[in-house]
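Review box. Two proteins, two foldings.
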Amino acid sequence: MKLFKFILNTIPRPLLIKGSYLARPLISFYLKGNTYTDPIDGKSFRKFLPYGYENQRENVLAPGSLSLERHRLLWLYLQRKTDFFSKPLKVLHVAPEQCFYKLFRNQKNLDYTTTDLYSPLADVKADICDLPFEDNSYDLIFCNHVLEHIEDDTKAMKELYRVLKKGGTGIFQIPQDLSRKETYEDFSITTPEARKIHFGQYDHVRVYGQDYFNKLRTIGFDVLELACLDISTASEVNSFCLSKEEILPVCRKL
């Protein structure tokens, strides 16, 4: 557990992404079993790996796809509540996650573009606050666990709204503390050590509260707040290692 925490906090994310491709097959073989199942690749394991930059969570990182709780919930939503796997869609994926990247790239129904400033998986290197795409370009935008890294998140949200087509959908997951009514941010906190203490991770600049969904609404999005149990069953929360507290923000541009 300490080893995983050390790796996450010391190795740059682009190198982590590249290195994980080498380690994944070995870890998957070692942890094979029947206790938990990853719905993304259908593989089962005796345990999942721990994950967390500051406070590590047990049994959350699936060894096969490297998915976390939020990824598995999003996958179930796409499978059960949308026509994502069959309808022709123009998709923008900001900071693409490894567990989705190849799967989405290989879907014949998707016109799929990835973007990020630093990720080796990005087709287009770009700042989320100044996206190089035309207005009303995309049917669907994924931008998950990105906004908590961005100081001017209002500008980033406006850019996501701008490039989304009318009638399009955005999924903008964030780490959220639902015990907070209001988002906590303090831009005088700049060191990695202080950010870990205040925001839970060395490169986060805020902790979102209950007001996150209303902020998206002020940008112009129509926001549907889907609880974990709106998408999965109670038994799946355990078998798929989901977070019962996770709320999926489904944002539409009307």
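Next protein.
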Amino acid sequence: MPIRLHKSVVYHCPPMTTFTESASTALQLLTSLDPTLVSIVARSLSVSACACLLACSVGLALGAWLGVAQFAGRSVVLTLLNTSLAIPSVVVGLLVYLMLSRSGPLGYLGWLFSFKAMVFAQAVLVLPIVTALTRQTVQDAEQLYGEQLRSLGAGTVLRAALLAWDERHALLVVLIAAFGRAISEVGAVMIVGGNIDGFTRVMTTAIALETSKGDLPLALGLGLMLLAVVLALNLLVALLRQWRVRSESAGLALNRGLVL
């Protein structure tokens, strides 16, 4: 920043090194495995993993069934499902908060501002994503192989299970995308978890809090960890795609060899 000490002399102060110092301190926290940082990262991974496990156990089955089932009002159900993909996370957090509050229908559980509340909120947030993507994947497979399966006597549930298994590589990508959405969420978990230090503080809420407090090294260190998790998920998706291409190529080559 230029400072004018004399009418004809202008001195320039050295640039601020806040970012450089914060980045250096953040790297030190990462390399030294700072206990606070490690506990926050571990809690964040645990919450997202549990939420994805719950959401995927329901969403995969429901999405596979919707992909093959034909019933009255199906278009309305699919419209509502696709609309739920755009619901903001803070709205989901508000709805879950009202459900878990003392006056809510699930208030007797006593989950508000706890680990379970955050898992529940993230599961509700991720469930539409898993259901919608699974439905689209299975429906595309139904258009290709559904008639053949029906001719063999396969019912709705059996066709849904067989097609979901046949598209298991694509559904693995759906699971990874769901986990990435869950771990990067901030609004819902902050509302229902309360961002309590040592209990419900996860990476995204900690980054928001530490930035507002001015503790940039810890916030930057958590941000680097979050970026590393997202990068690892993207690499895993790329590897799964390559694995699927190689598996399909090997299967086609084997079929050609048998025909010849």
